């Protein structure tokens, strides 16, 4: 019994040591993965002469916007197009079509979680909470 | 009517034994816990049904050609079912919170102390080494890992170990809060941890399961089946290109295998194998395993709290176990009880997913140390 317990103790030390070692390795690996990811996601510096909002004097858009000749359409046709578009968007929203998603599913927290995190990050401390 | 005919008609009644009757009651109790108490109903209901079916007098279900025996040999005896369930779990799990906060991996490691602590206690109670390790694996707080490891090390204890693991897993919301409160001060529970969400690219999310599988597989080959299948499911989920496979793995496949696994495990609960003092000891050791895991996690988190200058909430340590997402929810709830504006959920989720990985790693380490084949 005594020897078995001693062996069990050794097993515990080796076992927990190995688990910690392996997971520490994983920690390093995950940190490396995430850091590489963050570095690659950093925005490229703006070229000189280009204003942050793309409206400065030296700004040249990559593509000239094409304006549809709406003036050429009769008002009834324009109204019908607008209604059809709204109906189409509403139908797509109802179907939860991927095209209507502003963000990928799971990339944004729910309103409830969002509100919680906002509070979490506030430095304001309610009076008397930490007394 | 001939005497022999009467005997045949009453064969079931005359074959009833006190042990069999007791096991029928145990089966009914498991079904009661699943249906009315909603304790892990997905597993406890089939286990209870399996227990009932195999303990009915003269039941052919557990015989060589019986359905339950076939299910056992098809997927439990050869470890197939737990691994298939792991694919489903991987397909359902989002490791995002862990990737956003990688240091939580260490909390998951501390949460595995229950395995080894229970192993020691089981040795002290007179169990053989393999049996003690199988009982210790209840401390992984992970059903498939418990089944996988105990079936390799001590298949004769599979029934009680599985039942204990799943029953106590359902009791995490009752077991953990008193320990969390006892081991932390109010000041510690009030520690706020700001959470900043990182945007993770698809490449990172895809690289994570591959990297974990390769690293763990090379260092602990015995953990490859557990980690490999868990990460395969996650790879399918994160790749986004095999939605049908992900859907099947996390839905239909996981459900079918859960049913088969539950029935097969239930069939191991035959009176002569289950009604032993050892079962009672396993019941006691199981709850200790859960308590030790929680306590070790909290104590390690307290250590992190000290070295971080008081910026780490020790409650998070309680989530470093594999019971996902129950443990994280419990930690968040205990935190909110002290300060209704202290949201620990995302940190706890990170620790909880770390606990999932850590439990399979610990299972593999245990098998490697004991030289299981």
Overview of the structural elements:
The complex is a heterodimer of chains A (131) and B (373). Chain A has 131 residues and is mainly α. Chain A contains 3 helices and no strands. The two termini of chain A are 52 Å apart. The mean pLDDT of chain A is 74. With 373 residues, chain B is an all-alpha fold. Helices cover 73% and strands 0% of the residues of chain B. The model of chain B has no long low-confidence stretch (mean pLDDT 90). Classes of the chains: A mainly alpha (131), B mainly alpha (373). At the A-B interface, α1 and α3 of A face α7, α8, α9, α10 and α15 of B.
Helix-strand blueprint:
The complex is a heterodimer of chains A (131) and B (373).
Chain A: H1 2-41, H2 75-94, H3 111-121
Chain B: H1 3-9, H2 11-14, H3 18-35, H4 41-55, H5 67-76, H6 80-92, H7 96-100, H8 104-110, H9 113-124, H10 129-136, H11 143-153, H12 158-170, H13 172-183, H14 186-189, H15 202-219, H16 224-239, H17 243-267, H18 271-274, H19 277-307, H20 326-338, H21 345-370
Helix pairs in contact in B: 3-4, 4-17, 5-17, 6-11, 6-16, 6-17, 8-19, 8-21, 9-10, 9-19, 10-11, 11-12, 11-21, 12-19, 13-19, 13-20, 15-16, 20-21
State the gist of this model.
The complex is a heterodimer of chains A (about 130) and B (about 375). Chain A has about 130 residues and is an all-alpha fold. Chain A has helices at about 1-40, 75-95, 110-120.
The description of the largest β-sheet of chain B is:
none
**Helicity level of chain A, as a percent range?**
40-55%
Second-tier CATH architecture of chain B:
Up-down Bundle
Assembly level: heterodimer
DSSP strand (E) fraction of chain B?
under 5%
Outline type of chain B: globular
Compute the gyration radius of chain B: what is it?
22 Å
How much helix is in the residues of chain B?
over 70%
Distance between the terminal alpha carbons of chain B, to the nearest Å? 57 Å
Mean pLDDT of chain A: 74
CATH topology call of chain B:
Na+/H+ antiporter like fold
Q: What overall form of chain A do the CA principal axes indicate?
A: elongated
Give average pLDDT of chain B, whole number. Answer: 90
- List how many beta strands of chain B DSSP finds: 0
SS-based class of chain A: mainly alpha
Structural class computed from helices and strand pairing of chain B: mainly alpha
Number of helices of chain A: 3
């Amino acid at each position: 019994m005594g020897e078995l317990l001693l062996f069990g103790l050794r097993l515990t030390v080796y076992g927990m040591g190995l688990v910690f070692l392996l997971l520490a390795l994983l920690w390093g690996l995950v940190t490396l993965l995430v850091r590489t990811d963050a570095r690659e996601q950093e925005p490229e510096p703006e070229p000189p002469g280009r204003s942050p909002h793309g409206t400065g004097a030296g700004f040249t858009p990559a593509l000239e916007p094409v304006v549809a000749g709406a003036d050429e359409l009769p008002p009834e046709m324009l109204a019908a197009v607008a209604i059809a578009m709204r109906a189409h968007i509403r139908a797509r929203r109802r179907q939860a079509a991927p095209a209507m998603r502003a963000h990928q599913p799971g990339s944004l927290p729910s309103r409830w979680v969002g509100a919680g995190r906002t509070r979490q990050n506030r430095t304001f401390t309610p009076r008397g909470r930490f007394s | 009517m001939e005497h022999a005919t009467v005997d045949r008609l009453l064969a079931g009644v005359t074959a009833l034994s006190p042990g069999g009757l007791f096991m029928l009651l145990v089966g009914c109790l498991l079904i009661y816990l699943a249906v009315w108490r909603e304790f892990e109903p997905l597993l406890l209901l089939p286990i209870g049904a399996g227990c009932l079916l195999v303990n009915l007098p003269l039941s052919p279900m557990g015989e060589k050609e019986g359905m339950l025996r076939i299910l056992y040999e098809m997927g439990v005896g050869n470890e197939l079912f737990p691994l298939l369930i792991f694919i489903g779990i991987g397909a359902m799990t989002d490791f995002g919170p862990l990737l956003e906060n990688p240091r939580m991996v260490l909390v998951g490691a501390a949460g595995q102390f229950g395995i080894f602590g229970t192993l020691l206690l089981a040795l002290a109670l007179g169990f053989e080494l393999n049996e003690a390790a199988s009982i210790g694996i209840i401390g992984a707080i992970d059903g498939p890992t418990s089944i996988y490891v105990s079936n390799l090390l001590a298949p004769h204890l599979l029934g009680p170990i599985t039942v204990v693991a799943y029953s106590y897993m359902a009791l995490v919301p009752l077991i953990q809060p008193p320990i969390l409160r006892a081991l932390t001060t109010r000041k510690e529970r009030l520690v706020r941890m700001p959470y900043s969400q990182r945007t993770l690219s698809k490449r990172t999310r895809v690289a994570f399961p591959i990297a974990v599988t390769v690293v763990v597989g090379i260092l602990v080959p015995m953990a490859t089946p557990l980690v490999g299948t868990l990460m395969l499911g996650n790879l399918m989920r994160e790749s986004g290109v095999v939605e049908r496979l992900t859907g099947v793995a996390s839905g239909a496949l996981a459900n079918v295998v859960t049913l088969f696994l539950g029935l097969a495990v239930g069939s191991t609960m035959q009176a002569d194998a289950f009604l032993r003092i050892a079962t009672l000891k396993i019941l006691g050791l199981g709850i200790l395993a859960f308590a030790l895991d929680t306590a070790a996690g909290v104590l390690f988190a307290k250590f992190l709290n000290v070295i971080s200058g008081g910026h780490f909430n020790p409650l998070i340590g309680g989530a470093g176990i594999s019971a996902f997402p129950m443990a994280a929810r419990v930690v968040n709830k205990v935190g909110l009880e002290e300060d209704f504006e202290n949201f620990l959920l995302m940190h706890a989720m990170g620790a909880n997913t770390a606990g999932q990985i850590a439990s399979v790693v610990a299972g593999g380490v245990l098998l490697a140390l004991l030289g299981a084949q």
